[in-house]
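Students often ask why we bother predicting the structure of a whole assembly rather than each chain alone. The short answer is interfaces. A chain on its own may look different once its partners are present, and contacts between molecules only exist in the joint model. In this exercise we take two input lines together and write out one structure for the complete complex. Read the inputs first and try to guess which parts will touch.
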Amino acid sequence: MAMIAMREALRQAMVEEMRRDPTVFLMGEEVADYDGAYKVSQGMLAEFGPDRVVDTPIAETGFAGLGVGAAMAGMRPIIEFMTFNFSLVAFDQVINSAAKVYQMSAGQYPCPVVFRGPNGHAENLAAQHSTSVDSLYAHFPGLKVVCPATPADAKGLLKTAIRDNNPVVFLESELMYGWKGEVPDGEHLVPFGVADLKREGTDLTLISWGKPVHTCLKAADELAKEGISAQVLDLRSLRPLDHDAIFNAVAKTHRVVVVQEGHLFAGVAAEISARIMESCFDLLDAPVLRVCNRDVPEPYATILEKLVVIDPERIVTAARRVIGRA
Amino acid sequence: MTPVSLAPPLPPTSVPQLDKDGLFPLWEQMVLIRRVEEMAAKAYTERKILGFCHLYIGQESVAVGAAAACRPEDRWITGYREHGQAMAKGVTPRAMMAELFGKRTGASRGLGGSMHIFDKNVHFMGGYGIVGAQCALGTGVAWSLKHLKTGAVCLCWFGDGAANQGAFFESMCLAQLYKLPIVFVCENNFYAMGTSVERSSAVIDMSVRGLGVGMAREQFEGFDVEHVRNRMSAAIEHARSGQGPVIVEVMTYRHRGHSMSDPAKYRKPGELEERKQNSDPISITEERLRGFGVTDAEMEAVRERVEVIAKDAYEFADASLPPDPADLYAYTYAPASS
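Now the answer. The structure tokens for the assembled complex follow.
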């Protein structure tokens, strides 16, 4: 086990897969000469050359669509969005082209493309650079949506994404690129659709994915001080979704708080809550609660920003409510 | 910084002129496409074909001429008015008609319909319904054709309407930057749905849009199938040689409305009749064939053969089974890699 940062884990995944498969290439803004806007692709140009680590002009529709077309024609592109906010410019290509072409062609054209980059809140980036796109992309069949919370999962899931025959939206976090964690040595693959219980507990389950998993872990520490045993279930992928893990968590703790970065309205947290209600209502001892970002575009000033994003305190408050100690 | 360089003109045609034996099959192909399209129009009025249905009648020379300039391994990707292109590229009338009918024997097994015809066996990579989006896809196809060293070229088809889309402009930027083997084929049929070119663009020569990125360009009339074949050969040769992409704008005209539901009231009075009279691809080639000594009887024999093929396509489609509901989820996700 080596202790490495998230960005290095992601880089290892790409480098290993590019060594393994000559059809894999990385394309995006500033990925080559500049070594990556967040240095995820540092050094990759030197190893693989400009045909496989490719700088693009600022043309997200164009290069996202290029990735889809290249995938249909036999290669395995990794398309980096400098941030997933910019993917909204390319939304048509991700949704109408990537997610649908396998079905429209009745299986004649698989589309093995990975769209990756940082997603969601960072710090003081204001409204247009802080969007969480999880719920947008998870809405569409045909896409896989993956959101690692640790360097080990980041590496293992990205390698799986690159080998997958479907378009994968791979959501990282700018704040997490420097966060370190232990990553297994050697070949390390993490399958999609398998949630990971990041912390065991008996009184309630905090369900989350991506960066807020860590906020949940902090909240669980706080709750432990009050004698409340919270477990933290990291979904790791939203499509496919690990229904069994969610069901098992409800069966075990009977109380759930779903924690989702991004807006509450029509989000993935609502989907999970609805599924729990539909499939295991009788196992619940309390209504499922959601903790999400406040329902406003993210403001710039620190004092306002802190009100919008999830913090451990809000999760603790929701946890107390769900176990009847509010 | 390198100085701005204007795009080079395409070289003159290097392919030999067509004789009777070369031209005759192209005419036959055009007649077949038109007859199958007419059959589709009939089936649409019978409600055997549903949804949107955009016919290619009047534009046959463009697809057939381009196909005559291509190699089998070249890829085609296009918009939603693609029935003629699909057949020119090798999709059988049966597979195409069955797709329009929404049958399991269709090119896309009834999942795509009129706008989404795919046939990997003949490298027909689909019709797409979001105007201009296929330009970016075609650019990616060309990326792989280049880097997998296939020697093949991508023909990326779109209309004058798509030439106003951002995806088209971005695709030109990328294709030229990376010197990709792609020919952007703009079929200018003068109307983006009901909006004429003059009303949708300040510049009505769409091919000059290539100049902004330094792309080789050409605009020409596309009613003469041999002329299309000649100029497309020059464009494809340029793209295949590694010199980079080309944009060609082919002036054409559709005889039908935008889709089956469009009575096309936006045309100028007499315009359609004038075009049918003077610019019908099939008549133009017929006249040339007569000059080669082809007799009415020879042409009639072809028309009879075409009638049989078109009827057979209709009957095949009609008799085919619809998709199996059990397969509803079969194509949402591709299976795992081996």
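Check your guess against this: The two ends of chain A are 42 Å apart (CA to CA).
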